[in-house]
Hints:
Oligomer: single chain
Strand order of the largest sheet: 3-2-1-6-5-4
Amino acid sequence: MPAVGLRRRKIEMLLEDLDQVPTLPGLACHVLSVVTNDRPNRRDLQMAVEVDPALAAKALKLAIDLGHPADDLTSIDRVFEAVPLEVLAAEMLNTQAVQRDLLDQVHLRALWRHTLAVAMAAQVTATRLGTVSPETALMAGLLHDLGQIAMRLLMPRAYAQVLERVEAGGGDLLEAERDLLGVDHAILGKRLAQRWGFAEVFQNVIWLHHQAQVPEGSRPGVGTLAQVVRLADLLARQHGFGTYASEQVAENPAEVAETLGLSGVQAEHIGRQIARAIELITGPVGFDADPTSEQMRTVYVSANARLGRLHRDRQRATRRAQAEAAHAHHLIALSADLAAVARPREVMERIAAAAAGGLGCRVVVPYLLAREGGYVEGVRYTPDAGVEDHFLYDLGSFVNLEPTSETLRSDRPVRAEQMENWLFERQGPTLGPGPFYTVAMTVGEQRVGGIVFARPDADEPLGPEASDHAADLAGIAGTALKRAQAEADLVALSEELADANRRLESAHRASLQQENVASLSEMATGAAHEINNPLAVISGRLQQFAADEQDPGRRKTFDTLIQQAHRISDILAELKTFARPPLPRPTLVDPVALAHATAEAEAPAAEAAGVRVAAEGPDDAPAICVDRDQVAAALAEVVRNGVQACSQAGGGNVAVRVEVLPSRAAARFVVTDDGPGMAPEIRSRAFDPFYSGYEAGRRRGLGLPKAYRAVQANGGQMALESSPGRGTRVRITFPAAEGQVPADDASASDEPSSDAPENEPS
Length: 762
């Protein structure tokens, strides 16, 4: 047993170094003559592979080594579909032939003929059955004795002893292999198929085709295919295609055929069919040919020459691929670099630097066409100085200078002297000597700009690689510039939309205010008529009841009801005044004096609440032309709001300051308090009638709306700034009595506009 294990391990080690199986000299000579042609014929090459187990295994292994899934390579047709013909032909150029002294020593011709007969019989049997692919059966038949081929080639003398034993005693070949070599060819063939990565279906056929009972396993059809090859093997031996001269058939092929669903007559017909056809197939491919040494030498010389040409072509292709890879890497890096650039000028500067480096340019001028036409923007770049000029040219006053020639619609570089004459008209002396080339930067059908460049060597034409490089660069540049333009447009559009939204919101707010005021006016007018009349009756009767009442408690109740009736009447009068305020009676008013008077009037009540009120302003403030009483009431209302806000925080300060706007065009009252400030939802509704941020019943919410209406009626503007914890600032602006400015200019000096008023609750 130890000796058997040693022999077996030696064979396995030999198998580990086996990368391909040599073929018969005639077959080698034929296939080399096919593939030495620069344009090999696919049909001739496939015919050679389909009759040769060595070439079939070689082609299958190549396809697997190239990364194609082994389970998809179940036929020679699939192999030829997966591997390009020129690649397969190149691999066949290193086909090796079996040494002549081995041909007879281990009966290799008989073995090759046997494998072909089995392949043909398996294909015909599979066609008759219809349960197994005939093409897969053909491949399985060619590969079924791969282990026996390897054993005869790797250890010819030892295997010759195996053949002598079975020929002398008529024993079983597998038993003789195990006794003398320690392993049989079925197991060894399976190991080799595994190492070469063949599909599991072929591994099992190689391993199990001698067994009478084969389980299906995990893949449907595996057992059936092995039995098809087993029957084909028996039929080949029965009709004289054995693996050695005196081989006997131990089993009856008819019985095996019946297990597959075929009759003995059908099996016999298959055997006779392949016996007649095999000679027709083997002849054209040199199966039995015995080429001379000179013929083989001639074929190998041609093959070596072809290999040399392929090697040189591959070296050139490798260098080209390396250059293309470097170029692609450069373009990818450039694209990533440009993705972080937002301004068109920066894009052009980086494109210029990339062109100078990648094309070896002496000067580069990338330019950008305005979408609306009329001007062009670009940079002039040299490797030594970098960006020498950033230009912007108006092309509208020049004739035939705009870079819109049909020639420039091409994506390949062309001569620039005539195509880009607008550039040479302006920068000719600074560009230096030519020749100059230009390539258009386009995105889709739109031309974005172009790249004008000159190389140092005037005598060297622009080759294909440089032309491709320039075209690729222009494509990336055009996309980057288009993106930069789009981003700039997006920023401008967002600004325009924000401004339009601001104006729309202001107009909407003003419209709502006007609608509210109109509704309030209509309601107040109706209320004065509908409520005052019954209210007068109620009030009169209550006064009569109070005059006649002797009980002090009841008289007090009547007095309270009379007071509430009067309050309702006051509310109606206030509503009517808010809806239809009296027309202003303007006079010249000193704003500083008005500020001091308002502060003094509100100071006593403010001090009682722990709040200090003060006023200040310049002595030379311009007069304003307003109704003094209306503006004083509005200013006092703002101050009272500030006092009340500070009192909620336990005290504070309210300041009334007068400012003079630039050019003495207007005077502004600025009322600030250091109260708690307002939340956004309260600030946004400060001028809504009847809205108050205080507790219900504290105030009616008409104070600041009335003040705002009064300021507007006197030609002024009112604006507010407030946030929680930062107090409130209210600005009331009036044009100066002399040298008044247009309303638009006055509003421009106010931020925010009075069209969007915000204030504290009344």
